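re: ur question from earlier - yeah i can do the single chain one, its not a big deal. heres the input i used so u can compare w yours
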Amino acid sequence: MADIERTVIKLAMLGDSSVGKTSICNVFLNLEFEQKLLSTIGQDKMECNMIMDDGKEKKLVIWDTAGQERFHSIAIKACRKAQGIIIVFDLGNRSSFLNVVNWLKEIRDNFNNISLILFGNKCDLAEREVTKEEAEKFAEENNLVYLETSAKAKININEGFKLIANDAYKKYSKLKDKDGIYLKAQKGKNKNNCCGGDKKK
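and the output i got, formated as C-alpha cells:
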C-alpha cells in the first residue's frame, strides 16, 4: 500500500452572506446543488481527500463561514488554523464585491504567509453588476489569483480548490510543520503571499 502522509490542509471560505460559499463547497464535495439554501450560522466543517500536484493524497478540511456582519469575528477565528482562504463575492451583487476590500483588510491585519484566492461566483447569471475586467483589475492590484465560478453550472470549482490547496500545501511543505498548522496572527509585519497576498513594495 502506498504511504500516505497524514498532512491536513485547512481552508476557510470568507465572503458576504448569500454569495454562494456553501453551494461552492457542496459542488466541490459532489453534493447536489440547491437553488435555495439557508444562510450558514457560525461555521460548518467539511472534509474530503485530494491528490496534490506531487501525487500525494492529502486530507482537506474546509471551514464554511457565515457572511453576516454579526458573525465576522467567528469567521476570522475559523481562519486561524487555515493555510488557505477562498474569498467569494457574487457577480450579481456589487456590494459583495466592494466588501472584498474589508475582508482582505481583516485577513492581512491578522495573518501572515497565508494563501489567498478570489472567486467571482454566479458567472452563469445573464445580468451581472461586476464586469470581468473590473474584477481582474482589482485582483491584479491586490496580487490575487482570480477565477469566475458558478456552483450552479459547476464552472471552475474544482480548478479553484486545486489551485488554493496546492499553493497552501507547498507553503506547508517548505515550513515542515508536523501539525500542518503554521499560521499565527501577526500584526505589523510585511506580508508577501503566493497565490494571493500583498505585493512587494
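Residues 8-175 form a domain with the Rossmann fold fold (CATH 3.40.50.300). not sure if urs matches, ping me
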